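Hi Y.,

Following your request, here is the sequence exactly as I used it, all 291 residues.
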Amino acid sequence: MARGGTPLWVLAEQEEMLTASFYWVGAEAAIQNVRPTYYYNFNDSIPLARRLNEVKKWLQLPEERRPHLISFYFPEVDHESHLHGPDAKETGKAVQLIDTSIGQLAAMTDSLHLPVNFIFVSDHGMASVDIEHPIPIPPTLLDSSLCRLVSGSTLLHVYVKNPRRILPLYHQLQMGANDIDVYLPQDIPASWHYGKLDDWHNRIGDIVVVTRFPRIFKIGNKKATPGKHGFDPAIKEMHATFLAWGPQIRKSNTIPPFENVNVFPFVAGILGLTYSFPIDGSPNALNYLLR
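Below is the corresponding structure, written out as tokens. Let me know if you'd prefer a different format.
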């Protein structure tokens, strides 16, 4: 997605290219009053075999009705690794299922003799976390007269009601920090793309508190699940997946790591889409992968 909220399918549709989406996060919403030409709202009731067959039907449409950008989301590995941990046998079975499904998808497109490029990505990694020793949320942050708290397992956004209390609370949290890091928005590491300069919609808390891997916050009374993401993206366990192959993609065994934001210009380049708005990715970062 481009900075400011223009997804690839919206850019494509704006340039009169038909798109389709099966469960891709965000694609069921009208963004800039644009939706994919074909799409499904997310639900768990449609079997995987039927989902794959729907892609085949899209590719068998007459050329004037055929989508040239198809986004397809597999939720199974994320679900199992959250619930059981990334190294659990249940997660391994989910990985095998997706591997088999990708093979079926590739074989199906080969049978149609269409020049299809595949780009297989994930939006985050997954790590086993310490669920036996969760970090209690500092009691001060539970004082609703002082602040509003938006909490997650690895991240707290603190919205302080009186601006004059921001710095005293910040210093108080820093002094009591143990396995956590406390930031003001302007001090959040630039590599996270999550600081004050990135906050186009003014959503980041006045104070941001993050846990240090593998620790997590204790949220309510429910025991945490053993698989989490949301840590510093520099941590190896947070690294995402990228596989790409097809007629426009150069063959290569491995490539160096890169930031996920570079996927947007890479796909736009393959599709011949143009844009003039700013993006977080580098337009030429992955050009060396193209034939």
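The chain has a mean pLDDT of 93.

Thanks again,
Q.
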